[in-house]
Design a protein that fits this description.
Number of domains: 2
Number of helices: 7
Strand order of the largest sheet: 1-2-3
Largest sheet: 3 strands, antiparallel
Helix content: 25-40%
Strand content: 15-25%
Structural class: alpha+beta
Oligomer: single chain
Number of strands: 6
Order of helices and strands: EEEHEEHHHHHHE
């Protein structure tokens, strides 16, 4: 789709010697909008800051923007706190290790409840809630909705739950909670060193 420049937003840089700008574009053939990169047009500030973008959901910002842009001092320390991906680096795919995927995404109680439901069902169409969800995912990953296959996978996941070496659901949630708290603390401190870019439009 062809885009053409619509207008340019400007903001003053911290030292007052230059400008920060961002070009905006609109579709030629039908209506659409696209924002260009934010650029620091100042030698001094360009040597001191990098631009970081923060996407926000919900209401628009006061300047009618979805994203906020910050000037961050060059060399500011990166987040080094707890992370789920660091604690459990191996990615588990449903079509490669369905049992492991179950362990990582459900509590042991949920798996037991799903197993009880499957034991009392004569068809996958009778399943509800988490049991139905597992059945649907098993169908996509393993191309089967046979109850005996799903039952076998759930039984193995319950058997291996506490000895699983890539983090069961509860272990992952514990790390995730620590990560959320640490990231919030990091972000709060980082904000003290950042400068919000306030564009004129």
């Amino acid at each position: 789709m062809r885009m053409e420049e619509s207008y340019t937003s400007y903001a003053s840089c911290p030292c007052g010697k230059g400008k920060i700008f961002q070009k905006h574009y609109e579709g030629v053939d039908w209506y659409s909008e696209e924002d260009g990169p934010v650029t620091i047009d100042c030698r001094d500030c360009n040597s001191k800051f990098v631009i970081e973008e923060e996407s926000r959901s919900g209401p628009l910002l006061s300047d009618h923007r979805r994203n906020a842009y910050y000037l961050t001092p060059i060399g500011y320390p990166r987040y080094e706190g707890p992370e789920v991906i660091k604690a459990f680096p191996k990615i588990t795919y449903t079509n490669e290790n369905f049992v492991g995927w179950l362990i990582e995404n459900y509590t042991e109680e949920s798996l037991n409840n799903a197993l009880n439901q499957i034991n009392n069902a004569s068809s996958s169409k009778m399943l509800k809630g988490i049991a139905a969800q597992i059945s649907n995912i098993h169908k996509k990953a393993c191309h089967s909705v046979r109850l005996n296959k799903i039952k076998e996978a759930i039984e193995l996941s319950i058997l291996q739950y506490n000895s699983y070496n890539n983090g069961n659901y509860l272990q992952r949630q514990q790390v995730l909670l620590k990560e959320e708290i640490a990231r919030s603390t990091y972000k709060e401190e980082k904000r003290k060193h950042q400068i919000l870019i306030e564009f004129d439009r």
